[in-house]
Amino acid sequence: MTFATGDIVQPIKGGPVMSVVKVESGLVYCKIMASGEDKSQAFKPEELTLYKEEGDFGVC
């Protein structure tokens, strides 16, 4: 799968929701959205999936 800056992703094996900050040299650099810290972590693309919220979030 190909990722782009701004995508919202999550590790396939589970983990925090993250925002893609850059894609470079075959790695996807992500920032944990809820951490409040300015840390990024690199992942191989095959370790990530696009984040999807489960449930019905339609207009109430």
Task: Provide keyphrases for this structure.
60 residues; mainly beta; globular
Summarize the structure in words.
There is one protein chain. The chain has 60 residues and is an all-beta fold. It is 0% helix and 40% strand. The chain contains no helices and five strands. It has a five-stranded antiparallel beta sheet, with no helix packed on it. The protein is globular, with a radius of gyration of 12 Å. The mean pLDDT is 87.
In short:
With 60 residues, the protein is mostly beta strands.
Topology (elements, then pairings):
Blueprint: E1 8-11, E2 18-24, E3 27-32, E4 40-43, E5 48-50
Antiparallel strand pairs: 1-2, 1-5, 2-3, 3-4
Extended strand count: 5
What is the arithmetic mean of pLDDT?
Answer: 87
What sequence of helices (H) and strands (E) makes up the elements? EEEEE
Q: Which spans of ≥5 residues are poorly predicted at pLDDT below 50?
A: none
- State the strand order across the main sheet: 4-3-2-1-5
Look at the helices and sheets and give the structural class. mainly beta
Strand residue content: 35-45%
Q: How big is the Rg?
A: 12 Å
The biggest beta sheet reads: 5 strands, antiparallel
Helix content range of the residues, please? under 10%
- Total count of helical runs of at least 4 residues: 0
Spatial gap, N to C terminus: 34 Å
Shape: globular
